[in-house]
Design brief:
mainly beta; Jelly Rolls; 304 residues; globular
Length: 304
């Protein structure tokens, strides 16, 4: 009976196909932390940060693509952010993006009431100094999409596109688009490799016409907070990031590392582990545990 209960806590069965599906459910973070006698930091939580260091920057930057696989459906009762682009920099301008279980934002610049339509994609950039406001003239919002320009995490602007996603493999892409005077649009899409469907998330305007991509890249898995769900649980999930493609090619690798911040603005309870295999990085999220403080960061063995 105990074994059966344990197995049912890990899996559930589709009544139509008999398919075994992995479940994201586990006890609340508060319960897990209480049982271990550890204190939870305030959300958001960067459960894992992955960093690639390349041998050199990429000149004449045109595109960035990162494949990401998610091993189970995670419902929108969680706030999970899977960011294949955790931080990227072109000409000193920083941007990031990925898929979230709960995107939110403004319907338009005139109607700035925050809405929470559920799952979707997000693409954001900061102003150069992260202090000077950057307005909605820097965003291309798609029909049915959302936008935002604010300063609560450094001055940024953002586009968001609601769409349903779940278990599967996706390609998150940022591509150079059309010029606008002395600036250039970069467009964001998410393509499902399982269905072939591509979702246009929107575009952001960057100052400049010729761009250099810095010699690094990062990705992260995060549990965040929203007014809709201020105290999200931690889903059990396995996320696999592919090797970043710049201008369609794999830049030569100098090193790769995983990092699990335990303090600061993104400090997280210990609940994730990273592994390198081939050219991919797997982040496995599960129950909260006690991590050796000396092992919050470690190298990843990759052979892209």
């Amino acid at each position: 009976m105990i074994l059966r209960s344990f197995l049912l806590s890990l899996f559930f069965f589709s009544p139509l196909s008999g398919e075994v599906k992995l479940s994201p459910e586990q006890p609340s973070p508060e319960k897990m932390a209480s049982e271990l006698g550890v204190k939870l930091p305030p959300r958001p939580w960067h459960l894992a940060d992955v960093w690639w260091k390349f041998e050199k920057p990429v000149e004449n930057f045109e595109s960035l693509e990162v494949e990401v696989s998610i091993d189970r459906d995670v419902p929108d009762t969680y706030n999970l952010y899977v960011a294949p682009v955790g931080l990227a920099r072109i000409n000193g301008l920083d941007f990031y993006g990925g898929i979230q279980t709960n995107v939110n934002g403004w319907v338009s610049g005139k109607k700035r009431t925050r809405v929470h339509p559920g799952m979707g994609g997000i693409f954001s950039r900061w102003s150069r100094d992260k202090r000077t406001p950057i307005g909605l003239d820097h965003v291309r919002k798609v029909d049915g999409g959302l936008c935002e320009s604010a300063g609560y995490e450094g001055s940024f602007c953002s586009v968001r596109r609601p769409f349903k996603w779940g278990k599967g493999t996706f390609v998150f892409s940022i591509k150079k688009g059309s010029a606008k005077g002395d600036s250039t649009w970069f467009d964001c899409t998410v393509r499902s490799k399982d269905t072939g469907k591509t979702f246009d998330v929107g575009g952001l305007l960057f100052e400049g016409t010729n761009f250099s991509f810095w010699g690094n890249h990062s990705a992260f898995v995060e549990v965040y907070a929203t007014t809709k769900i201020p105290r999200s649980g931690i889903p059990k999930v396995k996320v696999t990031f592919g090797y970043p493609l710049l201008n369609g090619k794999k830049p030569k690798l100098a090193s790769a590392r995983a990092y699990h911040p335990s303090s600061g603005t993104a400090g997280s309870p210990a609940c994730a582990r990273g592994r390198g295999g081939g050219g991919k990085v797997e982040v496995e999220v599960g129950p909260i545990f006690r991590r050796d403080p000396a092992k919050t960061g470690y190298p990843l063995k990759l052979s892209p």
